[in-house]
């Protein structure tokens, strides 16, 4: 996989992705060099999935303004 470094901690970055990136699923590398899958619904929302330690995935959902609306941990079976 090609590494694309993106600062996912920036509200402006999230807002720009939602506004400018076509809807779909993308794999990126964040500012902490973690592999992150992102689901983009253009002009609507964005969700990230980051693998955490011990079989957990961190899921974060953002609204179209780039603000976090949900954050949850999902147990990998």
UniProtKB/TrEMBL annotation:
It comes from the Bacteria. This is Uncharacterized protein.
């Amino acid at each position: 996989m090609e590494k694309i470094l993106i600062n996912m901690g920036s509200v402006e970055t999230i807002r720009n992705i939602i506004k400018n990136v076509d809807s779909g699923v993308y794999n990126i590398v964040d500012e902490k060099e973690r592999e992150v899958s992102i689901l983009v619904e253009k002009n609507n929302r964005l969700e990230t999935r980051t693998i955490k330690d011990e079989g957990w995935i961190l899921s974060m959902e953002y609204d179209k303004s780039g603000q976090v609306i949900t954050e949850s941990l999902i147990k990998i079976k």
